[in-house]
Design a protein that fits this description.
- This protein is mainly α and 283 residues long.
- α6 runs parallel beside α8 and α10 packs across α12.
- β1 and β2 form a beta hairpin.
- A two-stranded antiparallel ribbon has the order 1-2.
- The longest helix has 24 residues.
Length: 283
Amino acid sequence: MCNEREQLKIDLMRIKENKYNLNEDEKTSDYLDLMFKYIGDTDEELRDKLICRTFINWIEIKQYFNHDELLGILNKVLSEDFAFYKMGNENDDSVLKRSFSILLVDPILCVHQETDFTLNLDTIIKIKNSLIRYFNEEKDLRGYDLEKGWIHSLAHAADGINQLLNCEGITKEICIEIMQSIENRVCEGKNFFTAEEDERIVTLIYYDIMLDKLLSDDYICNWLKGLAKVLEIEDSVTRFKARTNVKNLIRSLYFRMIHYKNNEQVANTIVELERQLNLFTVD
């Protein structure tokens, strides 16, 4: 006989093959508790390809959940038992539960923006606080693990912030708070970002903050200039990691701008900053 984990995998594979439709005698509540129980499982197929994708389809595409059910899912994923489960641990499996919980904020906010599922301002602020807390406090920044697959904690948090910035009630002060969190993360120099975290972060900076003019170009330029502080880090290895992460971030931003809509003021600031950070540039 299959144990509950194996049976869940079988059931979710069948549901996936059925384009995430449930049988007539099934309901989402038949699976939710087990999906949450194994949301951070070390089996990439179960965690990512089945549980995660089923959640996203049921939340955003099928829209199987009513208002109260979606609020329940949101409150659960933002709780100490999920997104903040063993927060501070590094290089263990607890990050999988945290990362794949925070990932569900994105589709829930999509439903909020596209349907009559409306979140009040207090809930939006709670989500903002949780996303920034996660972005600031997550210590396990691995992107991909050869045995356990995608971890992508910062990328998942950045996706949630990206959707948050499209919600009503987002102020200039909130945007500054987000930019400060990004600055602290890319400048800390603890880890190399190797799984395109820079691209996910640039997505929210470019599309939401810059194009929507949530912050001025002058602010963005001053913020970029401030990233040069990585050159003052005393420890050479930490400085090297921070400088590399900042270079990758600003290069991603530069080419995002070039591909779509150039901004000469910001572009010139990036070029000058890159010149400062690039030790291989010869004057």
